[in-house]
Amino acid sequence: MSKSSHKILIIDDDPTLITILSDFLEMEGYQPIPANEGETGLKLLEENQDVSAIILDWVLPSITGIQLLKKIKQKEAYLDIPVIMQTGKKDKESVIEGIEAGAFYYMTKPYSLKVLITILKKAIFDYENLRLVKESLQVNKCSITDFLKKGEIELKAPGEALRVASFFTQYTDYDKASIGLSELLLNAIEHGNLGIGYDMKEELIMDDRFDEEIRNRLNAPENIDKTVKVIFEKTSDSIKISISDRGSGFDYNNFLRLDPDTIFNVHGRGVAMAKLIFENRLEFSGNGNTVEIILPLREQEVKKNDKP
Questions:
Q1: 131-166 exposure pattern, b = at least 16 Cβ within 10 A, e = fewer
Q2: Does the domain at residues 3-125 carry the CATH identifier 3.40.50.2300?
């Protein structure tokens, strides 16, 4: 999909900032849709359900940005649309509240437009992949999955993570399961198998070299045979998923909560987001290169298992 087809909804009550963002996004090849308050933004969203991302200000007349974010995320049609929140507020509790409510990212004013584009590209890329995978699963759902009780999957590249995560999502009604699983799978591939550390990833993303580095490392002789192993087993009412990489592990306890000191970085929230989604259903073991998730089966899956 070309940039020119990406609609970006901007909801902000500052006319100067709306003009700056709209002009900048147009220069970058996007289609900005401006709204100066929340209800107008919701109406425009209903009229343009093909928007690729939303830039949402925290402080708005009549309804706050966080209230609007929660309203957006309550609707199934908008659930996966990435929302980038922006504000002049610096308190980190508000940042965490926004991310926990479903914001893809949180930017404090003033911010670099280069950083905004970096975040926007990542948000749209993830959103499009998630949408395509969900559509593919809906169309091509195979009845053979009804008979699968346990199995093993191996994957190598980041592009495979969302497809594998969405495969498991069809079994459960757990909210945002595909997002949480894909974050854990990406961590296993990028950090575990390919050895890309926190600071290195930050630098690569800011220099727009991250995808290139991933390709180079995937093709490196020492990584060519490395895979992330996913073992799953269904019981009568749940599915247990174990994800293991071939890395040296990491101190996962430092990443299970959103860290106020790094919350404004362009990455590093994946494991914490997965923990927020799965809560006590997620557990790391060993040196951190194995994580297990137990998800409840959706009601119709349980009924299938109850049949004689």
A1: eebbeebeeeeeeeeeeeeeeebebbebebbbbbbb
A2: yes
Q: What is the pLDDT of residues 213-260, one digit of tens each?
A: 999 999 999 999 999 999 999 888 899 999 999 999 988 988 888 776
Side-chain-side CA neighbours of 1 within 13 Å: the count stands at 18
- C-alpha–C-alpha distance, residues 298 and 245, integer Å: 28
Q: Cite the residue boundaries of each domain of the chain with CATH code 3.40.50.2300.
A: 3-125
What is the reported pTM?
Answer: 0.75
Residue 243: the pLDDT is: 97
Q: What are phi and psi of 149, to 5 degrees?
A: -110, -35
Please give the CATH number for the structural domain made up of 141-306.
Answer: 3.30.565.10
Q: Is the pLDDT of residue 211 over 60?
A: yes
Q: Supply 263's token pair.
A: 């919350």
